[in-house]
Design brief:
Strand content: 5-15%
Helix content: 40-55%
Catalytic activity: ATP + protein L-histidine = ADP + protein N-phospho-L-histidine
Largest sheet: 5 strands, mixed
Pfam families: HAMP (PF00672), HATPase_c (PF02518), HisKA (PF00512)
Keywords: Kinase, Membrane, Phosphoprotein, Transferase, Transmembrane, Transmembrane helix, Two-component regulatory system
Organism: Streptomyces xanthochromogenes
Protein name: histidine kinase
Length: 424
């Protein structure tokens, strides 16, 4: 089992934290620019209408004064103009009134009108029209300018956001890489000192503290396992020598079998302690894969069918460790599975299959655990066979995967690394 195997390089780049933060910054900048643009547009348009209304109101007052003094029309005033809005055709006597006209004629308009009767009831209406076209044209130019400025701001904000998010992303990636190394068994991996005093730095410190605690516990466990196995070797050897002195009989055979089982357990514990300590080194040589697998299966003494697709297939690996892995997988299949047990060799892959109840769910999910044999229906044992197989596979750079066949039975697959070496 390889935890976090798809942590990096498996997701599209656009789903990374950097681009999410950049997209959020761009969206925020766009919303701010839109809000500011709308507010400025509404405020300016309201100001234009207010100033146009005031000009119209004052202009009709000035025109009325001129008309009464000189009898002439000034400031663009007109009597009963045909375009005068209907709401201003009958203003109250002596009162000035204004109205907005949104129509556009010959590029003139929208406009604000102001009107007042020149005399008593039924007299003519003096009106002044204030054209707002120039101001509205300036408003459109202001909108365009703000749009360009907003786009420029977004274009400047996004790279800054990408850069800033990249700094955070690199720090988080460093922490995640450390966590992956720790999960893979590198107990000396540390994030190390990080800049700043933010949440990312806190995560890095927490991961390092977790690694320190985990390392102490695992090293203590491994040291205890190695010490126990080493101390048991001498008394177990003495027991074997003492058993040889017993007279032949059923009792002697029973004791001899139990002592041999105990010696095998001690040897397995020592092997696991060496694997945990990283003291095992492979000695790869070119070997015929099919022949090595057949020999490993034969050494188990168990009735197992072996099928080799390519008999001349040669690989470069450590044959002793390869035999150990295959032997443990075959013994595990017979002990915890059901007959028939079949071994297939194809390319650099060795598949061991039984026809029993299959692997337990927790074994498929969590991988093998020492002294844990899974479900009761898969037999008994001390649960070290698969643990040793996985450990020796890591030494070879190989991979062991476990699954259940659709039609029943457990399937263990060993994939050896490296290019194939052509056979002679």
């Amino acid at each position: 089992m390889r935890p976090f195997a798809a942590l990096r390089g498996k997701l599209p780049a656009l789903t990374s934290l950097r681009w999410k933060i950049a997209a959020l910054a761009a969206a925020t900048a766009c919303l701010v620019a839109l809000a500011v643009g709308v507010l400025v547009h509404l405020w300016t348009a309201r100001d234009i209408r207010g100033r146009a209304e005031a000009r119209a109101f004052n202009s009709v007052y000035s025109a009325m004064d001129t008309y009464h003094r000189t009898g002439t029309l000034a400031d663009g005033a007109a009597l009963d103009p045909p375009d005068l809005p209907a709401s201003l055709r009958h203003p109250a006597d002596g009162n000035r009134h204004t109205a907005y006209d949104g129509s556009v004629h010959d590029n003139v308009g929208p406009s604000f009108w102001a009107a007042q009767r020149v005399g008593g009831p039924g007299s003519a209406v003096l009106a002044v029209e204030i054209n707002m076209s120039p101001e509205l044209y300036d408003l459109r130019r202001l909108d365009a300018t703000m749009a360009v400025a907003s786009l420029a701001s977004v274009a400047a904000a996004v790279p800054l956001a990408v850069y800033g998010a990249g700094l955070v992303g690199r720090r988080l990636r460093r922490v995640s890489e450390t966590a992956v190394r720790i999960s893979a068994g590198d107990l000396d991996a540390r994030t190390g000192p990080t800049r700043g005093r933010d949440e990312v730095a806190d995560i890095g410190v927490a991961v390092d503290l977790m690694a320190d605690s985990l390392g102490r516990r695992l090293r203590g466990e491994r040291r205890f396992t190695a010490d126990v196995a080493h101390e048991l070797r001498t008394p177990v050897g003495g027991l074997l020598a003492a058993v040889d002195l017993l007279p032949d009989g059923e009792t002697e055979d029973l004791i001899r079998g139990r002592v041999r089982d105990l010696r095998g357990l001690v040897e397995d514990l020592l092997e696991i302690s060496r694997l945990d300590a990283g003291a095992e080194l492979p000695a790869p040589v070119p070997v015929p894969l099919g022949a090595v697998v057949r020999e490993a299966v034969a050494r188990t003494g168990l009735d197992t069918a072996v099928r080799v697709v390519e008999t001349r297939q040669t690989v470069e690996t450590d044959p002793r460790r390869l035999e150990r892995i295959v032997g443990n997988l075959v013994v595990n299949a017979h002990r915890h599975g059901g007959a028939p047990v079949e071994v297939t060799v194809e390319g650099r892959t060795v598949v061991v299959r039984d026809h029993g109840p299959g692997f337990p769910t927790d074994l498929l999910r969590d991988g093998p655990r020492r002294f844990h044999t899974g479900a009761r229906e898969r037999g008994t044992g001390h649960g070290l066979g698969l643990t040793i197989a996985f450990g020796q596979a890591r030494v070879l750079g190989a991979e062991v995967t476990l699954r259940n066949a659709p039609d029943g039975g457990a399937v263990a697959t060993l994939r050896l690394p490296g290019p194939q070496v052509p056979g002679a």
